[in-house]
Q: What sequence folds into this?
């Protein structure tokens, strides 16, 4: 075949409302290669995919497929041109049969009637190429997600896809299912199809990909062959840590003086859920900040959700103040005085149209139940208190919270949970998307809360931050706890090494 | 398996109900009762076929009762006052109703409006238009009407299969083939699964939505023709609330109100169960006929509970399948590669 790459992207750019989400990204996909596209939150991976496949219009840049310039305006046009995307949400119809899904819109017909038998026959043949022997007349929804993914891939390939983008296909698959998927990917690559593989699992990157492209802050950082890209380098590249820079930092990073930690408030023993999080063990004590570090998708948020009852664990137990406690849902968690500031402030946290006061008293009112309303006077008192204590600006309790800056919204969210007088507060990315000044303030706040005797579990991608405020750091990778660093050993390099450490082959989960 | 459960239950219920009636009233074992059941259910059955399509496609059509009403008045006036030959009048009203439904479908698709509101507006429009034509009942004396009412197929045992019953059975048969064995039918199920996903899979969603609502209105007009043939008159007040009877029959027949699942066999059983209750009450003679409404209400509750139960059950077994997925997925040769 010719030397022209299968897919060639030059200078792809896209900005949303003045924010440059993608800045002149180059990308090359060769025939028959499996190419990892990596990056942390906000790196621009999904914008890249959406812009490439025409779901959003590009501002600048060019795309060539097999040497022909293309500019699709929708996912459908892109698929017809030969670039198909299979997302984590399968994008097929669970109520139709497998065969109907594969052939929807192009069913074989005779005299206007669908030739059902021929359709099922052909479906079985296609899927057999993937090593899949299933009843193609059964509804797609009756099969596990792994099979649904394979059917989606089969449909894409059948629609003559030459480039296949798999966006986190393995996020909800178990070890065996991943093996199967990899088998199919290799086979497709052998047929000359180029595959872009987006994942958060480093093990998988090294298990299957030929090359790696890393994006950060909307820019191309590097493109290298997987075999010559050591793990530690990769993690550093993804997180944006130059080695020199890092050494300079680790010397200057001030370590706050610690008061001794009190008795453990929360203790998780072998807490886990099959296919979601491998069992973790952790304790958080009074007056202690425990940091949860790891790459995006490493299991940090999953841990928080299990602790808070937002997801139900199927193994292990939680002890609060030494007593085993069942936390079946977030309401239970509230009742036991746990608090959780989620990562997505805009969607999971603030209610933008309500005032600062209403947002602050929300959790407290929820805990008291609808029949014991907080008096207006009490609401005003609490709100005034926290506006002063946390220095929320402008100090106007009746302002819709959506009009505040990110940092002040975050403080109001903190106030919401502090108002419930929690014994443990979980903060998920408390400094994401807020400006540098507010950053420092939030960090100072975290420290002072902890000194006041609160137990805190803080999730953050900002390693310097974690190092600054944590008494202990738990490192996560590939949905498992891989290390715990205690006081003396906490620095950025140690965390990076723990994330990048060559894992022993992952032990298959007990099903 | 579990997706056929509601139809199976409806079939069992109908059989049991029929058997019970037969022990009470031996006349139920004659073809006469069977024939009457079909004739009485004819007009609702035809409407319900259209409703089944709409509901499987994830929508709802509240306008069908009004379209039936409008059709009967229009036919009465067109034939008696304006001198249009009956067959031509049938053609005109079918075309008009098809366009009316297509317009509703277009509104629903283009402006992404909720079908409930659009067809509610259509319901008021069509009912109002009927009253605009005439506020009272108009008898139809055309010779065709007299001829048709005599037209029937004698069944062994003294029963008669009337023309209207025949039309209904035909509509069910053709509808069943379209739904099960054409691209359009597959698309109807796909739309009920997810309109957005269907569009992303490259299907032209708009024209299919328009077609579904056009079909529903068209069948409502056909039901109106049947209704006017049966009663030999037209009144704007006819078929009030029939859209709800049709929805009830569809749901009792196992079609999910949320769309994407169901079928016409179930709807047929749903219509027949309604007819059976009505007939049983007539045979009894002492019960108020409104008891049929109460029975229908109770049945609806029971069937919705049944559906929710089986949906929950399916969800659970699906998750179980996920947990033990490994074994079923692949032949060992793949695992390596």
A:
């Amino acid at each position: 075949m010719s030397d022209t790459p299968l897919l060639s992207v030059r200078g792809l750019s896209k900005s949303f409302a003045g924010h440059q989400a993608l800045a002149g990204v180059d990308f090359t996909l060769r025939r028959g290669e499996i190419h990892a596209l990596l990056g942390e939150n906000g790196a621009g991976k999904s914008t890249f995919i959406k812009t490439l496949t025409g779901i959003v219009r590009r501002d600048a840049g060019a795309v060539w497929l097999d040497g022909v310039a293309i500019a699709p305006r929708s996912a459908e046009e892109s698929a017809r041109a030969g670039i198909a995307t299979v997302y984590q949400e399968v994008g097929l119809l669970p109520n139709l049969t497998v065969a109907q899904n594969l052939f929807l819109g192009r069913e074989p017909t005779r005299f206007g009637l669908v030739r059902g038998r021929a359709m099922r026959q052909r479906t079985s043949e296609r899927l057999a190429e993937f090593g899949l022997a299933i009843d193609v007349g059964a509804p797609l929804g009756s099969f596990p997600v792994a099979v649904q993914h394979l059917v989606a891939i089969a449909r894409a390939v059948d629609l003559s896809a030459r480039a296949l983008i798999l966006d986190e296909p393995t996020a909800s698959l178990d070890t065996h299912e991943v093996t199967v998927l990899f088998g199919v990917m290799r086979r497709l690559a052998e047929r000359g199809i180029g595959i872009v593989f987006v994942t958060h699992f480093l093990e998988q990157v090294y298990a299957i990909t030929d090359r790696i492209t890393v994006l950060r802050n909307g820019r191309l950082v590097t493109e290298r062959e997987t075999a010559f890209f050591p793990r530690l380098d990769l993690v550093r590249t993804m997180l944006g840590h130059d080695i020199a820079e890092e050494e300079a930092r680790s010397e200057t990073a001030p370590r706050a003086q610690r008061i001794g930690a009190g008795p453990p408030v929360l203790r998780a023993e072998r807490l886990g859920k099959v296919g979601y999080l491998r069992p973790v063990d952790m304790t958080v004590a009074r007056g202690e900040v425990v940091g949860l570090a790891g790459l995006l998708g490493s299991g940090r948020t999953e841990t928080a959700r299990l602790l808070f009852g937002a997801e139900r664990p199927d193994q292990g137990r939680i002890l609060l103040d030494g007593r085993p406690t069942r936390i079946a849902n977030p309401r239970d968690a509230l009742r036991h005085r746990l608090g959780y500031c989620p990562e997505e402030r805009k969607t999971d946290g603030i209610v933008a149209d309500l005032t600062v006061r209403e947002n602050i008293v929300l959790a407290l009112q929820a805990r008291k139940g609808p029949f014991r309303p907080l008096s207006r006077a009490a609401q005003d008192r609490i709100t005034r208190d926290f506006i002063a204590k946390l220095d929320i600006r402008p100090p106007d309790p009746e302002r819709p919270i959506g009009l505040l800056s990110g940092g002040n919204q975050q403080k109001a969210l903190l106030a919401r949970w502090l108002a419930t007088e929690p014994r443990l507060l979980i903060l998920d990315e408390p400094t994401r998307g807020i400006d540098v000044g507010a950053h420092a303030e939030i960090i100072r706040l975290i420290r002072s809360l902890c000194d006041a005797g609160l137990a805190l579990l803080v999730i953050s991608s900002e390693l310097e931050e974690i190092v600054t405020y944590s008494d202990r750091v738990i490192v996560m990778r590939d949905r498992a706890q891989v290390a715990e660093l205690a006081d003396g050993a906490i620095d950025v390099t140690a965390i990076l090494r723990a994330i990048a450490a060559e894992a022993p082959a992952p032990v298959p989960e007990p099903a | 398996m579990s997706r056929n459960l509601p139809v199976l239950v409806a079939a069992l219920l109908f059989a049991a109900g029929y058997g019970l009636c037969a022990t009470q009233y031996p006349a139920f074992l004659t073809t006469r009762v069977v024939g009457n059941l079909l004739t009485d259910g004819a007009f609702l059955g035809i409407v319900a076929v259209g409703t089944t399509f709409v509901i499987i496609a994830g929508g709802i059509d509240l306008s069908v009762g009004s379209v039936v009403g409008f059709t009967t008045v229009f036919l009465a006036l067109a034939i008696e006052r304006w001198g249009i030959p009956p067959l031509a009048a049938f053609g005109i009203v079918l075309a008009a109703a098809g366009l009316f439904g297509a317009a509703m479908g277009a509104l629903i698709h283009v402006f992404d409006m909720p079908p409930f509101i659009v067809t509610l507006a259509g319901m008021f429009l069509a009912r109002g238009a009927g009253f605009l034509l005439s506020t009272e009942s108009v008898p139809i004396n055309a010779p065709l009407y007299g001829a048709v009412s005599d037209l029937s197929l004698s069944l062994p045992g003294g029963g008669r299969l009337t023309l209207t019953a025949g039309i209904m059975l035909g509509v069910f048969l053709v509808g069943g083939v379209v739904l099960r064995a054409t691209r359009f039918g597959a698309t109807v199920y796909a739309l009920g699964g997810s309109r957005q996903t269907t569009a992303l899979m490259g299907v032209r969603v708009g024209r299919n939505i328009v077609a579904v609502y056009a079909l529903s209105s068209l069948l409502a007009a056909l039901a109106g023709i049947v209704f006017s043939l049966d009663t030999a008159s037209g009144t704007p007040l006819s078929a009030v609330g029939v859209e709800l009877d049709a929805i009830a029959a569809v749901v009792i027949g196992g079609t999910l109100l949320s769309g994407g699942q169901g079928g016409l066999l179930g709807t047929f059983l749903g219509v027949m169960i309604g007819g059976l209750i009505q007939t049983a009450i007539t045979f009894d003679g002492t019960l108020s006929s409104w008891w049929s409404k109460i029975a229908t209400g109770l049945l609806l509750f029971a069937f919705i509970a049944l559906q929710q139960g089986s949906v929950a059950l399916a969800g659970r077994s699906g998750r179980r399948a996920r947990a033990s997925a490994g074994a079923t997925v692949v032949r060992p040769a793949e695992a390596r590669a």
